[in-house]
């Protein structure tokens, strides 16, 4: 038992990876496998869900998405990103490892301006860059069946139902809470903060993030659980924290505009 415990601890210590913030976190699944799982899951979603054939919506969402993508570090900007608009009335969006972004048409009714849509998409892209899905899956692997599952998942085909289900659960696509993917609160706060920086660095107005969450609050009125039961902060609490990051975000927007970045996305 002592030997097994030592091996277990050794794996935990060596299975950590560094986030863009520089802190180390447990990640048992390789970036390559996460990307393959994301691509496979996205392809399955495109088959199972109706894709919008409205070219104006598609061009608009792509305009906002790629404005943010083009402002990312080279490692991420140079990936082959794919953006799809799904016909779905829910105000939702998501990003998957492997460079995949999905936007529901219902979100376009709540995010009323390009900068408001950029707030959501910056948030979702930040989830991917900070590898939150990997962290959630890694914790689930440890909590559910430990090292045996880690070994099986690391060897199995990504097309397998277990791998797909773990990704879906880890990324929150199986049970939406509120209007975006239910990562835990720490992940949500990180995605809010760095997503705001991403959209501002692309030339969007970070002040519109407040209006976006006011709209989200109205759209979810009467539908939300108490915050202590939810993995998502309530919109009013998000707004309070976003305002703390506003000075830096406005500076990033100013720098972006000085570089000529001023996205002209219309629908």
| Count, helices | 13
SSE pattern, N- to C-terminal: HEEHHHEEEHHHHHHHHH
Largest sheet: 3 strands, mixed
What percentage of the residues does DSSP assign to strands (E)? 5-15%
Radius of gyration: 19 Å
Number of domains: 1
Q: Name the strands of the widest sheet in spatial order.
A: 3-5-4
Helix content: 55-70%
Question: CA-to-CA gap between the ends?
Answer: 62 Å
Low-confidence stretches: 171-183, 225-230
Shape, principal axes of CA atoms: globular
On the 0-100 scale, what is the average pLDDT?
80
**In total, how many beta strands?**
5
Offer a quick outline of the entry.
By secondary structure, the chain is mainly alpha-helical. It has 13 helices and five strands.
Tell me what the structure shows.
The protein is globular. The strands form two sheets. A three-stranded mixed beta sheet has the order 3-5-4, sandwiched between helices. The chain has a two-stranded antiparallel sheet with strand order 1-2. It starts with a helix and ends in a 9-residue tail after the last helix. It has 267 residues and is mainly α. A hairpin with a 5-residue loop joins strand 1 and strand 2. The protein has one domain. The longest helix is centred in the N-terminal third of the chain and has 18 residues, at 31-48. Helix content is 58%, strand content 7%. Residues 171-183 and 225-230 have low confidence and may be disordered.
């Amino acid at each position: 038992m002592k030997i097994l415990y030592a091996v277990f601890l050794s794996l935990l210590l060596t299975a950590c990876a560094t986030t863009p913030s520089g802190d180390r976190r447990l990640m048992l699944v390789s970036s390559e496998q996460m990307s393959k799982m994301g691509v496979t899951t996205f392809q399955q979603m495109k088959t199972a869900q109706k894709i919008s054939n409205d070219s104006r919506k598609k061009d608009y969402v792509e305009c906002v998405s790629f404005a943010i993508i083009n402002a990312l570090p080279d490692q991420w900007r140079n990936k082959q990103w794919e953006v799809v608009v799904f016909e779905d009335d829910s105000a939702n969006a998501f990003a998957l490892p492997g460079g995949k972004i999905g936007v529901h048409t219902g979100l376009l009714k709540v995010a009323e301006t390009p900068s408001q849509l950029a707030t959501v998409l910056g948030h979702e892209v930040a989830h991917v860059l900070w590898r939150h899905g990997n962290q959630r899956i890694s914790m689930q692997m440890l909590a559910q069946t430990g090292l045996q599952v880690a070994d099986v998942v690391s060897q199995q085909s990504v097309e397998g139902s277990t791998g797909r289900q773990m990704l879906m659960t880890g990324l929150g696509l199986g049970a939406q809470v509120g209007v975006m993917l239910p990562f835990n609160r720490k992940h949500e706060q990180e995605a809010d903060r760095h997503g705001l920086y991403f959209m501002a660095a692309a030339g969007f107005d970070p002040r519109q993030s407040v209006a976006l969450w006011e709209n989200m609050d109205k759209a979810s009125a009467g539908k939300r659980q108490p915050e202590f039961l939810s993995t998502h902060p309530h919109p009013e609490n998000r707004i309070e924290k976003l305002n703390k990051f506003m000075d830096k975000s406005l500076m990033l927007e100013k720098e972006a505009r000085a570089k000529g970045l001023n996205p002209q996305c219309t629908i």
